[in-house]
Amino acid sequence: MFTPPSQFSAKEPTKKCDRPNDLRLVAGSRVENSDFVASLPLAAVAMEFRSFRGRARYFVAVSGIMLVLFETAAGYAVFKLLDDAKLKKADNIWEEFNTPEKAQECLQLVNFKKFKSTSEALESAVDLNDGKLSKTLKKLLKKSAGDEELAVGDAKLGKLINEKLEVPCVHNSAIAELMRSIRSNIGSLLAEHKEEMNAMNLALAHSMGRYKVKFNPEKIDTMIVQAVSLLDDLDKELNNYQMRAREWYGWHFPELGKIITDHVAYAKVIKTIGMRQNAVDTDLSAVLPEDLEAKVKSDAEISMGTDISELDLLHIQQLCDQVIELTDYRAQLSEYLKNRMVALAPNLTVLLGELVGARLISHAGSLVSLAKYPASTVQILGAEKALFRALKTKRDTPKYGLIYHAQLIGQAATAYKGKMARKLAAKVSLATRIDALGEDSNAGAEVGIEARAYLENQMRSEQERIAHKGAPGSHKQKGSYQFKSEVHSYDASADTTAKKSKKRKFDDDEEEKPKKKTKVEEVEEEDSDE
């Protein structure tokens, strides 16, 4: 039987074998589709075969053993790919593994390292997620892998294995399709551990979920995102309830809505007086000031509203209870959000306030994500629809998004709002990075306070400049034209004006006017003088 040498060199250009034809073996060439390749050992060998009788020259490529690393919830499995030629056509790999029988013909289990407990499985999964190799995986690869190529489902994992253990790893589209095929037939390939795998899948999923919730660094950000979203929803619901209460009770006492503008006070008055006829005998000093109380009582006696039943009043008062309770809860939620924002992002809170800062964090997803945004993105965050519409129509892009509701921009002059938004966004970007990535968690809001003082000074100086010179574009240019209007006295003679007659004049009138001498006559006179 033919046995190739372990190393090829120019000193050994020819070798003899038991084949019908004498073949010469040369290093550095490739051979494909040879019948006797199966008799060669599964090592990476490249050979060129040439017939001494002048026959055709052909090439064979022996790619060698390829191992496949597959991760499961029960442990790590290493398979040997028996026919790696099937990987050359990634589109047809699924056809070679679509049944358990075909999968077992192409793959052979080399080693399976089972996890001892759920905690070990969780530790290995966390290490892989963090880009580390667990001890279990290292032991398995040192025992199973040698110089053979190792197919992995993740390119980062393959790079890590190559760096740590110096094992050549392969990952491409064909390997990804192979992993998908193995996953679909893993029950038949690991038939001995099938029942354990089902239980371990569920246990590892629960453990991984608890771990992510427990050690999530953005869990405080999540509380802020949920709180500010609930606060916005409460504002919408409160507005609907208050408008409904005013419209409903307005049929009975329409004058009350014009007297009391505060929604909570309006609901409390309805709860206190009930029917409008009871307003005269009811004490409203705990709800309204004296002047409004007197106005309510006087208008209740002459109200133009319709009568309602006790059942109608009961439902209206229950709606008022909802308005009062939701208003109290909104105040508590707002205080909770303020405390959370001061603890998480003190510098951002000083610059923007807790509400606008929380909305920026909610829009970005987390404080760390917001810290990664440049100042130009922070400036227009929340105005994405207007931005893309402006880019599509080739018009001016928006100057501000959610940051427009900040107090500093609201206090700035209209012509200065865009510039103030740009300056504020730069300071917000810096403050957010300090809050998210600062090493000293007890540093406080010193950076935010200094930045706010700087922006206030800038705004004050800009307002003084506008007050002295006027707004940009409104000051007078030197040498510009100025229209001066003159005051004319009234001309009484212009009251009636005689218009020229359009009638044909008589011959007598024509004779009165001297006739002008024509040039021809003048020429004749000159000739006569000569």
From TrEMBL:
Pfam families: Nop, NOP5NT. Signal peptide: none annotated. One of its GO terms (molecular function) is snoRNA binding. PROSITE patterns: NOP. GO terms for biological process: ribosome biogenesis. It is found in: Nucleus, Nucleolus. Its main location: nucleus. GO terms for cellular component: box C/D methylation guide snoRNP complex; small-subunit processome. It comes from the Eukaryota. Keywords: Membrane, Nucleus, Ribosome biogenesis, Transmembrane, Transmembrane helix. The keyword Isomerase does not apply. The chain crosses the membrane at residues 58-79. Residues 467-530 are annotated as: Disordered. Residues 344-464 form the Nop domain. Belongs to the NOP5/NOP56 family. This is Nop domain-containing protein.
